[in-house]
Design goal:
Length: 89
Amino acid sequence: MDRQVQNKTVGIWGRSVHTEPMGKASHDAVLDLYPKERSFVLTRSATAKILIYAASSWGSENETSWASIKGANPPSLNAGFSLLQVQLL
């Protein structure tokens, strides 16, 4: 851990901590702008909990395109049907 701090690397945990507040901030901003509309936030990197705020997670590593988003829909829907986005108490 000390070596990571010295090298100023974020690591996997840091990325997880970083993506969730970004998704929530985007979700909240959409709700502020359009309070009577259902929000839709598409995020590229996410943890399971991000699906509370984001409608879909898309894991395109090579390019940003409609084709890669289309390819990510089946796994995203599967995660939704599996209740991956439900916050367990």
